[in-house]
Specification:
275 residues; Rossmann fold; seven-stranded parallel β-sheet; 8 helices
């Protein structure tokens, strides 16, 4: 896919942060329609105004992606308003950075799993059948995390949600290939810490810089167009994955803790705002 010109794009968590950056790229490339889902009405209205001023054809919906009912209702409305979606960015996410026993069952555990794991499946389920039958080049981009590849203290529930996201996303990719639906590509994105409010206060592990949102968005955009199966950022994420798989667990724990400082990276976390 060389351009998204004329394509219909849906982005969750689109009112601010990286979601807004994806929307700006879509407008810049003259997407046929840019659909924004977010839970923040004020930020959504502001972003819509900016994108329309830039010449975009923009549709916005106030959606709580932790609610299956809200997802299904708004997905049906999108299909009535503009038809089938070509590109889906499952971008919305939340984090709770504390020890597991300090999590509240509903506000922390349930909500994190609902937004980071279940929502991306529900949303894809709503739009994927039309992507399959439509025969057009289509994309599903699932923003997971390096936390879904390496365990980390004070991130247990977040790690669980992103492990689930990665397992589902890459399995979906394989299912589409196996069933012959090769015009629909799935990209699973696994970045390390990004300098958004979501990760405020984290400390970068050794040789792993805190990524800037624009750099990540540009790389994801390129991977989406190429139909790349996975994107890990930076390269040290793959190194950590390889090391954890090859080394005895006690040795890996020692290296991750004392050398790479992964296990202490969340000690001063004070973020948590959605991306």
């Amino acid at each position: 896919m060389e351009t998204v010109a004329g394509k219909k794009i849906l982005i969750t968590g689109a009112a601010m942060g990286m979601g807004k950056l994806y929307a700006e790229l879509a407008v810049r490339e003259k997407a046929g329609a840019v659909v924004l889902w977010d839970i923040n009405q004020a930020a959504l209205d502001e972003t819509v105004a900016e994108l329309k001023a830039a010449g975009g054809t923009v549709f916005s919906y106030l959606v709580d992606v932790s609610s299956l009912e809200d997802i299904e209702k708004n997905a049906a409305q999108v299909q009535r308003d503009i038809g089938d979606i070509d590109l889906l960015f499952n971008n919305a996410g939340i984090i709770r950075g504390k020890y597991f026993w300090d999590h509240d069952n509903r506000r922390d555990i349930w909500l994190t799993m609902a937004v980071n794991s279940l929502a991306i499946m529900y949303i894809a389920r709503a739009f994927l059948p039309a992507m399959i039958t439509g025969g057009r080049q289509s994309r599903i981009i699932n923003i997971a995390s390096a936390a879904g590849t390496v365990s980390n203290p004070r991130m247990s529930v977040y790690c669980a949600s992103k492990w689930a996201a990665i397992g589902w996303s890459d399995s979906l990719r394989l299912e589409l290939e196996q069933a012959g639906h090769k015009h629909v590509k799935v990209t699973t994105v696994m970045p390390s810490y990004i300098s958004t409010g979501m990760f405020e206060g984290v400390k970068a592990p050794l040789m792993t810089p805190i990524l800037t949102p624009q750099v990540v968005v540009d790389k994801v955009w390129a991977a989406m167009k190429a139909g790349k199966p996975q994107l890990t950022l930076p390269w040290t994420v793959r190194l950590a994955m390889l090391s954890r798989g090859l080394l005895p667990l006690k040795l890996w724990d020692l290296i991750a803790d004392k050398i790479f400082h992964i296990y202490s990276s969340m000690e001063h976390f004070k973020g948590g705002r959605p991306t």
